[in-house]
């Protein structure tokens, strides 16, 4: 059967590494502004009407945007089963915290305006803010822990993952920095959307917060880069890599070296484009918000998010989840994937359905284009 597949096993593994990165970027860009808007709700909207305007900017699209997270999770389950098993067991409590935040978000959207009582609405507004901040923070903390290495190993006979850490171990200083970076980055993205899709005074407040968050995004990202280069142990494979071998992470040899996560930038200098986009996109977002070029600011904030995520992927390659307790157990592109046939069938599915989803998403955003105003919220019976 493998002889009928036009791509060799090693190539398909890299293809799915690229697709996984694309799905993560899609989620961060599309659902990221939903989380950012929720996090900024108390500071950009002062009255009940203003808060309704803010909520209705993302109200019609947040459910569709969240599909990117579900798709990414499904892709990891099918394409990277060892990664799925190790990460969901190791990050179990953190995942439950994210799920709590994501479950509370639709409840807040649906129930907030069911009663006219001010205290009722303020409580649900606090729930929405909590959901945006907590989900953004945990996603960033998880990414920071992957860079640090996750304390897990495998049983050599059964390849059963065994997590050797605990919940509070996830919140180490570097991981917290990554979490704060995630919060301010997505808040920047949400603020840009509000500056674009609303009128003053909400728009002007969002613009001010967007500039602040953009500057913080660039500063924290640069600080994290220096931290990784000089103080975070990286992993390097020291044995021969067989890109077509069956998935078994315990067969390789790995050394731990400070600064090893920077090796790919020396080997492939073109990868420097990713951190450059992360910093330049954030700085440009602040400048574009200042001159009120809101649509361009949205594109530049999206570029910054993509650059940050690509930087993580490029730095770790070929690792997708290194292990801090047993470095040779760390999962790589070459030893953590599904079978050759499974990856090929999934590529066919992506080729069919991704264009459909993209076209449909574009159509929805075209229908929902335009500013959300006091009048539009009042005139629309289905508004939140």
In short:
The chain is mainly alpha-helical and 384 residues long. Strands 1-2 form a two-stranded antiparallel ribbon. A two-stranded antiparallel ribbon has the order 3-4.
Please explain how this structure is put together.
The protein is mainly alpha-helical. The protein has one domain (31-379). It has 14 helices and six strands. It has helices at 9-30, 32-44, 48-58, 62-79, 81-90, 92-111, 118-148, 173-197, 202-231, 263-267, 273-290, 294-316, 340-367, 374-379; strands at residues 152-154, 161-163, 233-237, 254-258, 319-321, 331-332. The chain has a two-stranded antiparallel sheet. A two-stranded antiparallel sheet has the order 3-4. Strand 1 (152-154) and strand 2 form a beta hairpin. The longest helix has 31 residues, at 118-148. It is globular and about 65 Å long. The mean pLDDT is 88.
Annotate the secondary structure layout:
Elements: H1 9-30, H2 32-44, H3 48-58, H4 62-79, H5 81-90, H6 92-111, H7 118-148, E1 152-154, E2 161-163, H8 173-197, H9 202-231, E3 233-237, E4 254-258, H10 263-267, H11 273-290, H12 294-316, E5 319-321, E6 331-332, H13 340-367, H14 374-379
Antiparallel strand pairs: 1-2, 3-4, 5-6
Helix pairs in contact: 1-4, 1-12, 1-13, 2-3, 2-7, 2-8, 4-5, 4-13, 6-7, 7-8, 8-9, 8-12, 9-11, 11-12
